[in-house]
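Run log // design_07
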């Protein structure tokens, strides 16, 4: 497995992150009017899955804030995938599941290009050397990558019942996918509320 190279140099391109001027970056996986409808639907749910999903939708920045924190203290090969998979399976809440999934997809390899090549890590600046205009990718399988937002959106859509859970089979260990379905995915009644909420927009 190719690991990210570490470089001690002061010369590097700044990491490319979505820029919105003076506005705070938006990490919402849906359009604003859709987010309003989804949060409203989840807020009215009485199930534990619905309540946990509401917390995720109202705090979408947490997944990305964690990635930023991990980048600033990245050490090549520090994350052992089997241990990270076990942590994922022990998640108690939906938010914790998201955070453990971020660790699973970041710690072993860091960031890479869409061609699956690892970016160098600049220890002086404590960030990956990502060329301007290039999006950071996470290795989701040995041969494929995705942006953090792509991964976050896929997880959200499956948990809301908008996409089939089998779409995650290639990027998540089977036992953890089963745990996600049983403990965190919205049940039929709540999924119907989500669909109706989106249809009303």
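design_07 sequence
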């Amino acid at each position: 497995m190719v690991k990210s190279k570490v470089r001690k140099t002061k010369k590097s391109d700044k990491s490319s992150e979505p820029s919105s001027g003076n506005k705070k970056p938006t990490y919402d996986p849906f359009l604003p009017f859709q987010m309003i409808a989804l949060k409203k639907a989840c807020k009215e749910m009485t199930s534990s899955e619905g309540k946990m999903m509401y917390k995720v939708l109202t705090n979408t920045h947490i997944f990305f804030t964690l990635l930023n924190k991990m980048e600033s203290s990245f050490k090549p090969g520090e994350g052992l995938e089997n241990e990270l998979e076990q942590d994922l399976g022990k998640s108690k809440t939906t938010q914790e599941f998201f955070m453990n999934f971020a660790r699973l997809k970041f710690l072993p390899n860091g960031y890479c290009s869409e061609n699956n090549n690892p970016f160098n890590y600049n220890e002086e600046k404590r960030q990956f050397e990502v060329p301007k205009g290039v999006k950071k990718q996470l290795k989701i399988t040995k041969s494929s990558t995705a942006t953090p937002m792509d991964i976050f959106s896929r997880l959200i859509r499956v948990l809301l019942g908008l996409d089939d859970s089998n779409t995650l089979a290639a990027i998540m260990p089977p036992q953890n996918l089963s745990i996600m379905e049983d403990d965190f995915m919205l049940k039929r009644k709540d999924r119907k509320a989500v669909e109706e909420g989106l249809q009303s927009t």
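The first strand starts at residue 6 and ends at 7.
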